[in-house]
Design goal:
- The chain has 107 residues and is of the alpha+beta class.
- It contains two helices and six strands.
- It is elongated, with a radius of gyration of 15 Å.
Length: 107
């Protein structure tokens, strides 16, 4: 990881594309002070649908991408780069890709 001087932070939104949100990820988000919820809605045929959603800090909630891959986008604000780094290390097997430039040489 590229060390940053004290007081510096990443200036961009950190994105992770994961295969799916596991229960372990949800428990981890709850443990670190984030939110892990189950979102329920009804589709156009009246069937109940549900999906897991996580959010940490000021970042937007996770969602399934619309590009046909079925991956879930998990976001972290730039100020939460240390937490995002831990997420990368802890759930490395589930992460398809990410944009955390400071960790590229380890992925």
């Amino acid at each position: 990881m590229i060390p940053l001087p004290a007081g510096c932070r990443v200036a961009y939104e950190i994105r992770f594309y994961v295969h799916d949100l596991t229960d372990e990820m949800g428990e981890w988000f709850n443990m670190i002070g984030g939110q892990a919820t189950m979102i329920k809605w009804y589709d156009h045929l009246g069937r109940e649908q549900s999906k897991k959603q996580v959010q940490y800090g000021r970042a937007k909630p996770s969602h399934i991408t619309q590009d046909g891959t079925g991956l879930t986008l998990v976001r972290f604000a730039g100020e939460d780069a240390p937490t995002a780094s831990i997420f990368l290390i802890k759930f490395f097997e589930s992460i398809q890709s990410h944009n955390l430039k400071e960790m590229e040489k380890y992925a």
